[in-house]
């Protein structure tokens, strides 16, 4: 067991976020304090953040959202699919180049 001196540290965490984290950590048998010590120890040992940092998923803009809704309506048969069928890439490209 480590004989290192433990020094109190204040960490500010949003209340709702703290509650969610504590609830999850309780379910796996860890306290928030234990998790923070574990994360900091891994940061020091690995010399990197010990988990992948991902951004929030992008929310489609209005144009993309409308296209998704229309595509789904076509798929469900709510709107008739009046798009031209293409047997080859050349025909598709000609159609796309038309004004």
TrEMBL record:
One of its GO terms (biological process) is regulation of DNA-templated transcription. Pfam families: RelB. Gene3D superfamilies: Met repressor-like. This is RelB antitoxin.
């Amino acid at each position: 067991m480590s004989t290192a001196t433990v020094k109190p540290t204040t960490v500010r965490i949003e209340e709702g976020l703290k509650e969610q984290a504590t609830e999850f950590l309780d379910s796996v048998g860890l306290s928030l304090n234990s998790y923070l010590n574990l994360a900091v120890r891994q940061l020091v040992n690995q010399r990197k953040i010990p988990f992948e940092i991902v951004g929030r998923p992008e929310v489609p803009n209005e144009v993309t959202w409308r296209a998704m809704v229309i595509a789904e309506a076509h798929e469900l048969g709510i709107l008739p699919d009046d798009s031209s069928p293409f047997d080859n890439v050349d025909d598709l490209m000609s159609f796309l180049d038309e004004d």
